[in-house]
Each structure stands twice: as C-alpha cells, then as structure tokens.
Design a protein that fits this description.
The protein has helices at 2-19, 188-202; strands spanning 24-28, 31-32, 45-50, 54-55, 60-62, 67-77, 82-90, 93-102, 109-118, 123-128, 134-136, 143-152, 155-156. It is α+β, with helices and mostly antiparallel strands. Strand 7 (82-90) and strand 8 (93-102) form a beta hairpin. The longest helix is centred in the N-terminal third of the chain and has 18 residues, at 2-19.
Length: 203
C-alpha cells in the first residue's frame, strides 16, 4: 500500500513538473498614480512574463493553472501628506489591503506580499484607492507588480517538495554577503523565505 501511494505521488509530481512549467511575471508602471482611483493599475512595462499569465493591456494576471501563488506589489510613495491604500484584488474581491503613510517631504518604498491558493482562470490585480499616490520613471521602475507560482499539485515549482520542511540556510543579519561566482546559486524559494524572515525580524 505504501509503495502504491509513493508511486502515485511520484507520478503526480512528475506530471506537475512536465505540464506546469514555471509561471512568473514582473511588470512596472511608468509615471505617477496621483491621488486617483485605479482599478486596476496598468503595469505596462513587462520585463518577465513566463507562462503568459499577465496581460499588460488590462493590468490583470490570470492563473494559467491551479496552485499556490505569491504576489508582490511595490510603490515609491509621493512626497507630502498622503494616506496610501492599495488592495490585492481576486476576481473582483478585495483580499488584502496595503497601507502606508508619510508626511512632509518624506518618501519611502512600500512593499506588500500576498499569497493565495488560486484556481485556473482566477484573476488578480492591484487596485489603488483614491487619495493614494506613487511615482516612477522609465529607469527607476519603483511601481511594480510581480507574481510566481510556488506550488502545484503538492509540488514546489521553485525548489524541493512542498511540505518537506525548511531547508534554506538562515539569513545572516550580522554581516554583508559578498557575491561571488564561486558561490552556489540560491533557489528562489530560499530568497523569498529569507526575505520574509528578515522583514518579520525588523518589524
């Protein structure tokens, strides 16, 4: 019985790997989103769109396969007194609200993370609420929307098997890491998890 379950799991994982090639996108918005309602924000500068899930005409990502996805939205806040709100929208429903507030001449890069279990055809986009403001240029790319398929059919698409435990080295907060061609490449899953741990510790 155990052997049958194991063979079934291996078969399912192999099929997921073969059928579900990587789904990842990264897009930027050029210009300023000054104090207006954007639903959605159109990120018209597409830098990566493997899996063709993101549509730069509509600003909407459509999940090409079932799975667990992670999305990231970043925005350089406008200077001045603003109360900024952005929302991760899934099929027209507000799933998570991002908030940032600055005063006077201050500015900051605000980043929000969102993880959701999606079905094929589910649609995800970023909504800006009225009164919010962010700015970007063709070179700075400081208003961005990105996403990646993390898990499909119980299989991690960016590393080891989902649920197999944390296998990444802990982030080193005591000294600066120097890049070198001799270093082993770090998987995307390790980078994502390490960043989340660092953000939690610095909160």
């Amino acid at each position: 019985m155990a052997a049958e379950v194991s063979l079934e799991r291996i078969s399912r994982q192999t099929a997921a790997k073969q059928q579900g090639s990587a789904v990842v996108f990264f897009a930027a918005h050029q210009g300023m989103t000054r104090e207006l309602l954007f639903n959605p924000i159109i990120f018209n500068q597409v830098l990566v769109n493997q899996g063709s899930g993101y549509d730069n005409n509509s600003g909407v990502f459509t999940a090409p396969v079932d799975g667990i996805y992670q999305f990231v939205f970043s925005a350089q806040l406008c200077r001045g007194d603003h109360n900024h709100f952005w929302a991760f929208m899934v099929n027209g429903v507000e799933k998570m609200l991002c908030h940032a507030q600055v005063t006077g001449g201050d500015t900051s890069l605000n980043t929000c993370y969102f993880i959701e279990n999606l079905k094929r055809g589910d649609r995800v986009w970023i909504k800006q609420l009225e009164g919010s403001c962010a700015w970007s240029s063709a070179t700075s790319k400081t208003i961005t929307f990105s996403g990646v398929l993390l898990v499909r059919e119980g299989v991690s698409m960016v590393g080891g098997r989902y649920g197999s435990g944390y296998s990444c080295p802990p982030p080193n907060l005591s000294r600066r890491q120097e890049s070198s061609s001799a270093q082993q490449p770090v998987s995307l899953s390790c980078v994502v998890i390490s960043l989340l741990v660092i953000l939690f510790l610095l909160d």
